[in-house]
Structures are given as structure tokens and as C-alpha cells.
Amino acid sequence: MPPEPAHRHDRAAMNRREIIAQIALLLGGSLASRFAQAALRGDDLHVAPLQSTLSVEQRLMVEQLAELIIPRTDTPGAIDAGVPAFIDQIVSQWYTSVERDIFLDGLTRLDAYCLGQYGALFNVCNTQQRTRALTVADESTRSYQLESTLKARELPDEHSPFFYKLKLLTVLGYYTSELGATQELNYNPIPGRYDGDIDFDKVGRQWSS
Amino acid sequence: MSQSYDFDAIVIGSGITGGWAAKELTERGLKVLMLERGRPIVHRRDYTTEHIAPWKIPNRDLPDRSLYDSDYPVQRRARGFDHTTLRFWNNDRKNPYVQEPDKPYNWFRADVVGGKSLMWGRHSYRWSDFDFDANRRDGYGSDWPIRYTDIKDWYSYVERFIGVSGQSEGLTQLPDGEFLPPMELNIVERAFKAAVEKQFPERRVTIGRVANLTVPLRDRAACHYCGPCQRGCSVGAYFCTQSSTLPAATATGLLTLRPNSVVESLEFDPASKRVAAVRVIDADTKAHHRYRARIVFLCASTFASVQILLNSRSADSPHGLGNSSGTLGRFVMDHYHGGGAVATIPGFRRKYYYGNRPNTLYVPRFRNLQAPGEPAVDFVRGYGYQGIGYPAEWESTWQKISGFGADFKRQLREPGDWRLFLLGFGECLPYRDNRVVLDRNLDRFGIPQLRFDITYRENERRLGADMTEQAAAMLEAAGGKSIERFEKPFTPGTSIHEFGGARMGADPRESVLNAYNQSHDVPNLFVTDGSCMVSTACVNPSLTFMALTARAAKYAVEQAGTQVI
């Protein structure tokens, strides 16, 4: 069995359109699904950054996971905001090998859970099934407590568990993205004045930075 | 004997004090060469990350770990260091220094025109005679050769030029300055202030006194509350060399600024007992240059100035220039930093703020003020706090909101509970064997690296413990919950308030400089950065450095006028 990295590169050769078609079917065959529509338009959902170490399936998992964590609601979601590409870049280029292994192992475990529970890989499970799989990953890390905050921009712990890493990168990628920062939150780079006592309801959303 | 000079004066360093020396000397008619070891940073043109959108910052500002590990292992720990300011900071790999194995010292440095004045925290407080008289009173260190009365008008002079916003409080231990209108405390800080002043009537909570404009000053605009001043400010709303002293000096037509100029040593002429020239190595070409001047102002920053003096050895000065006392490099200090506490202040969830205030609250010193009935403590000197009330925002609240999906996203729209954070700065005593020396290892210019041998001692530890305990007590008085005490101090140097190594004093056998920052041994040499300091007080020192510089410049020009130097 070749070592994992080589195996991942082999999988990149698989037909992306086949995967997309499968998903569209399993999502109820509805061509209204954003994934399917985008694929038919030729949008390249799975464009890999130049040095991605993720396989096609892993990139698709990351998209679905990010969108589960921060979905499109009345404001853009993670996919709209380009979060999957950010996560890919961090995992592929910024992470240490320890961190990358934890992250990729987490993706593998999601697949294993889905296979065991639903007889299918994560990417071809339906929304409820995928949500359940992610919930299980989430609940298994609830006890993991950390003190440090993202404001310091230091990843607090190389060994933090998969779900924590995933949630952190999704949150960071989303709320520092243009859409996330300007449409979901309030972006006000040049306020012009300081008022230390306003009613939150007057602004309704946090400042993004 | 006639001398021919290249310049009337050479100023070494372009930071907080170098900029002031250049301004004062040129405005008094001297032709000045300002040497800066670092690269040019031109006001406005080079503030390339000012107002940068978060999505444009590389890796969304996740630290570039491998680069920081290899090239900025020390600087990365500094307040204000990140992608957007990295190019201002010293490259530790290219320009290393030596630490004693069990005595770590964070030496934070800039390597650009403007020095740390680009990234400084801008807090500007006057000293009082509690500070100037401290050494004499408790016997640690040697007596300052000046008192508040000698520097009072110079504080005013500097404040009027740089612009300091603040609130007059009438406190003897923290003299009021010439203030622009103060920034405001936010609602939680006001609640904290009310609670603390009620429970501890001898304590005060005020807004920070910062070199940020709240109203326009000459051609500089008032602050627009964008937040990170250290990225540079094109409208000049905070004081730095580029916004203020450099334009003033340039306007005289008498200033020559030479960046990329590493000062290797000062050349002493034993016949005249003067510095005859400054030896420079070009940082890019490594070419050697020599510039002659009548007066030299050494403003390279505390440890850099001491390094230059130590390296200016000669047959007449085997232990460094101006070191007949043997005190050069000794009695170095910084501020004990890192004690304090943080707590949640419940009850303000529906309250928020508008604008990013580049300022904190300030709690002035309340210990050891010889006030009748004041509690006795087990340490001498004192400390103050900077602090801030702030709501927890998405960067931290995401961890506290469990789950994921639409509901998680909706909850993240709102900030979390407010917190109040207090971080202390404590006075460090002058110890003879806290010192810097030249190491055997040379840097890439052939200059001996500086080796740091500095530790905190018992008084600092006791003061630090009280700093933390009192922070917790004040937070408790304000209804703080889940109070978290900061038990461990930061590594020495972390305050970025550096003092000593070429201290002032009346007695040439015990000091390097006289009451006018003039070298006892070398009358045309003035040293006006933090190296001149005899003690540390507990307040941010830059205002005092600037005032001493302006005062010394006037004196130097007068001395030159009477041909004494």
C-alpha cells in the first residue's frame, strides 16, 4: 500500500464530473442543488490551489463541511465566501505535518463513520447524514478546552483535534473573507470617531475587525 | 587648532529621540547628518498595509511560522508584530544578539527610518519627583542629577509639538500635561472606574495619555479610529518621526538623512578629548565611511547606543568611550510586565462600541506614595496599569458557541460578554550587575554582538505579586466574574521600555553623563535615549526621553555657541 500522500495524488486523476453527478443524484436528483448547478455551468468547484495536497474527494468534503458549519442563510455561506479554498491552502501549505495528518485523518474518520452508518462515503451521503457525521465529530471534542483566541492569530495547539481545526479554519476563513466580513458582519475600516457606549441593536452585527 | 567638519552635528538614530535631536538642532541653525542603520520608510508612500482589508492579509494573518522561526524568533513576540508590520522590525537572523543561557531577554528592535516610533504604543506620561527622588530616598542606584522642575517646561514643549490627548487628574504622582481633549472610556470602563474609585478612594482610573491627536494639530489630522496605528498613518494622527520631527527638520533645509548606515564606533581624538568622527558601515554595500562633526547626539536606542560606546574602544578608552566610571553597560533595566488580571463583567450584553480606539484606560501608581495611612507593602517603588474593557468578539466567542450551522452563524452575529483586562508595568530597581557587554561573536558588519545579562530580583517579584493581586481586587470590586490572574511575568524586555547603561549623574565616578546628557569624559558627545536613565519609574518613558533630548539639544547648541565644545 503506497504511503498516503502518493495515494491522494492518484485520486486526483479521478473524473470530477462523475463525482458531481453522483452527488446531484443523491441530493434527490435535483438540479436545483447548488453543487449540480455550478457543475453544469462549468464552475470549477474543485479547483485546487497550486500546491494542494488534498485529493478531489477531500476538497469536496472540505466544501461540504465548511458549508455545514457556516451555511448560506440570509447572507452568504462558506462556499460563497471562498472558505474551502482558504482551508485547502492552510492545510496544504501552512500546517505542519502533524496538523495535516490530524486534519486528513479526521476526513478519513468521517468517511469511515458514514460507511459504517450509511453504507456510503461522506460525499455521497445526504445532508442529514453528513450533518450527523459532523455532529459526532463535534461532540467527541466538546471537552477540549482552550484559552487562546484567534485574535492573536496563533494556532494554539498543534495537536488540537480535527473538529476544532476544521471549525477554527472555517470561522477564520469566513469572517475574514470579503463577503463574510462585509455582509454577515459589519465592516467599518474608517469609523471616523469613537463612541464607547452604543446600543448593540443600533448596529445589529459585530464589527468584523 | 582648526577643525574642518562635514556637519555641525551628527545624530545617530532616527527614532523617538533621534528625530527630536535632528529637529531641535536643525531648527537652531545647525547642519545635521542623521544616520539610521535601517531602511527608508517614507511617510505615506511606504505605509503599504495601512487600512489593509483582512482578506488581503497573507494567510488571513495566521503567523508565517517558518519565516518567523528562522528570521524573527524574538521580534515575533512583540506587541504590534505581524505580517502587516513585519518589514519595520529587525531581522533576528541577520542581526542577532546573545542572551545568557538562563537569563532570557527580549530585545525588540526596529530596522527602519523612524525606529520604534512607527510601532510604539504612544502612551506619554510625565515623571514626578516621586520618580526623580526615588533612588536617593531608598538608596537603590544613584541620585538623578535633575528633578521635575528641571524638565517640567520641556515636557510642555514636547507635548505641544507632538500632541498628547489626555484627561487632567491633579495627581502628584502623575503630573498633568498640556493635553488635547481626552478620548473616552467606554461604558464598561466607566463602570469599572466608578466601582474602583468607590472602594479604593486613593486610586484613580483615567483614560490613557497618548500621542494620538483628538483634534487637528498643524498639518496633522485627528485620529479616525481605524485601529492599528503601527501600520503607519498617512494623516499623521499619531506622533512618529515621519509624521512630525522629520518634516520639521527637513523644512529647515539643514538636514541630511542617511539610512542604511550602521554606526560601528565613534572616533575619539585624544588631543582634543572630543569625538572627532563617526565611523559608518553601509548596510547594503558594507563600504566604510567616516563623517566628522562638532557635536554628536547618540540616540540609537538604549542598548544600541551602549553597544556603540562599548565598541568605541581606544588606547585612552579601553573599556569603551566615556567609561572612566566603569558604569557603561551597567544598571540596565526595563519594566516588570505581565502581572495583572482579566475578568468578565456581566450585564453589558446589549452594549457595544463604535470605532477602534487606539488607547487604553490607565490606573496610575497608588503604592508607596508616602500618603498618610497608606498600607505598608513589602516592596519599594510602584506600578501602574494599562487596561481595556472590550466585548468578546467572534475571534474568541466561536469557541464558546457549540455546534455548527445556521444557528451557530446567527449566534456569532452578536458579541459575547464584556471583559476587563488590566496589565501592569512595574518599576525595576537599578542593579549594578544587570548589564550588557560585548560578546566575542561578531555580527555581519564585524561589530561585536551585545550580550544581555539581566534578571528581575526580589523587589520586582514582590511588586509583581502585588500588581496581580490588586488587579484581581479591583476587578472583583467591579463585579468581575471568572477572574483570571496573570501569575507569571513576561520575559524581561517584553515591555519594550529599555533603560540604563549610560546613566546620568552628578558624580563622574559614578555615571557616564551629566545633568544635560553630556558625556563627563567627552564634552561634545550627548546621549539622550533610554540609556541615560538612572531609574525607570513605572510609566511609559518615551515622553521623558523626548524632553531630555530637546533640553540637551538646547544646552549643546549653547555650549557650542560659547565655544566650550
Reported for the largest beta sheet of chain A, the result is: none
Radius of gyration of chain A, Cα only, in angstroms? Answer: 18 Å
Helix content of chain A: 40-55%
Cα radius of gyration of chain B in angstroms: 23 Å
Shape of chain B: globular
SS summary, helix count of chain A: 10
Largest sheet of chain B: 7 strands, mixed
Strand content of chain B: 15-25%
Beta strand count of chain A: 1
**Tally of helical runs of chain B:** 12
The domain count of chain A comes to 1
Percent of sequence in beta strands of chain A: under 5%
Model regions low in confidence, pLDDT < 50 over at least 5 residues of chain A:
1-48, 147-154
Which structural traits does this protein have?
heterodimer, A: 209 residues, mainly alpha, 54% helix, elongated, B: six-stranded antiparallel beta sheet
Outline the fold blueprint.
The complex is a heterodimer of chains A (209) and B (565).
Chain A: H1 4-11, H2 16-26, H3 34-41, H4 56-69, H5 83-94, H6 97-118, H7 127-139, H8 162-175, H9 178-184, E1 195-199, H10 200-203
Helix pairs in contact in A: 4-5, 5-8, 6-7, 6-8
Chain B: E1 7-12, H1 16-27, E2 32-35, H2 65-71, E3 98-99, H3 129-132, H4 134-138, H5 148-162, E4 164-165, E5 179-180, H6 187-199, E6 206-207, H7 241-251, E7 255-258, E8 261-269, E9 274-282, E10 288-298, H8 302-311, E11 336-345, E12 351-354, E13 361-363, E14 383-391, H9 394-397, H10 406-411, E15 418-426, E16 435-442, E17 448-453, H11 458-477, E18 481-486, E19 525-527, H12 542-561
Parallel strand pairs in B: 1-2, 1-10, 2-7, 3-17, 4-5, 10-19
Antiparallel strand pairs in B: 6-13, 8-9, 9-10, 11-15, 11-18, 13-14, 14-15, 16-17
Helix pairs in contact in B: 1-7, 1-12, 5-12
